[in-house]
Every structure is written in C-alpha cells, then in structure tokens.
Amino acid sequence: MDGMDMSSTSSSSHSMSSSSSMSMTMVFKNTHDTPLFSNAWTPSSSGSFAGTCIFLIILAIIDRCLIAFKATMERHWLATHLNRRYVTVAGKSSEAGNIDSDPDAKLASLITAQGVEESVKVVHNLNRGPIPWRFSVDLPRALLFLCIVGISYLLMLAVMTMNIGYFCSVLGGAFLGELAVGRFIQTNEHGH
C-alpha cells in the first residue's frame, strides 16, 4: 500500500505543478531585453530598447494615419458615387441621332460641352444605402483595410509582451497619431 500512496502523491504533485505552470501571472515587466515579434528582435542595450520603442511609436502613428486616409477615401468615393448624374438609358434614341435622321427636327435638346446630349438621363442619386460594388473602389478599400489590420495586430502583439515600455510606446504613438490626424477620421453620422 505504501507504493500506491507514493504514486498517488507524486501524481497529485505533478498535476499541481503542471496546473501552476499553466497559469501565467499577467503583470507588466520593466526589462530592456523583451523580444518584439521574434527572438531575433531582442534589444541588447538601452539604446536598442529605445530604438524599438521609437519604432512602436512610429508604427502606431502610421496606423492612425492609415485609418484617417481610409476615412478620407471613403468620403471621396461616396462623393464620386453621388455625383454620377448621367446614366445611359437603354432603348432611348439619342437627340443627335434624331437630328441626323429628321432634317425638320428642332434644336431644342440638351447641349453639353461635348455637343448634343446622347442617350442619357439626368438623375440625382440620393440613395443612402451602400454604394454599388466597384473594382476601382473596393480593391483599394480592401488593401487599405488589410494594411490597417496587419499593423493593428502587430501593435497588439507588442502590447501582449507585457513590457511597460512597449505598452507606453503604443499608447504614445496612438495619442500622437490621433492628435495629428484625428479630425480626418471623424465621420458625418447624420448624413448631411
């Protein structure tokens, strides 16, 4: 029976040690040798740690700038969509064709800078729904979003190292980026 007690004691002590090693203590550390993104990027001096922190500040500023750029482009794409006023009407003969085929036709037609209007109709797009899918808009939008998400995840990984210097650098960069370009990120929620 003594052998049985020893094996159960060692088994329970093993499960206790493995459960305690599995629970990590989440506390900030203030060391200058915390790897960033890979073991190859491990600052070895105070200067290289400062350089890493400066990199994180710049990366966070770039993240905010990309978000502001995307918001600006969204407004541009929407304005371009809303300003599309001439739509070709299927089956409508052009006024220029009517004038050419009928010599008695009156010249009471829409004259544009390019000449007599073709088979178009003037429309005002007041639709507040999503704009139609366009390759020239949606591809750049998706690429911008990909860059923003990639940088955001890199910043998240830097914060997850639990290094106080990296954490403060990301916060400082986000603050400086918002201070510089935050006014461009604001969207008009009322549709004016």
UniProtKB/TrEMBL annotation:
Its main location: membrane. GO terms for molecular function: copper ion transmembrane transporter activity. Keywords: Copper, Copper transport, Ion transport, Membrane, Transmembrane, Transmembrane helix, Transport. It is found in: Membrane. Pfam families: Ctr (PF04145). It is a multi-pass membrane protein. The chain crosses the membrane at residues 49-69, 142-158. GO terms for cellular component: plasma membrane. InterPro entries: Cop_transporter. Belongs to the copper transporter (Ctr) (TC 1.A.56) family. SLC31A subfamily. This is Copper transport protein. It comes from Penicillium polonicum.
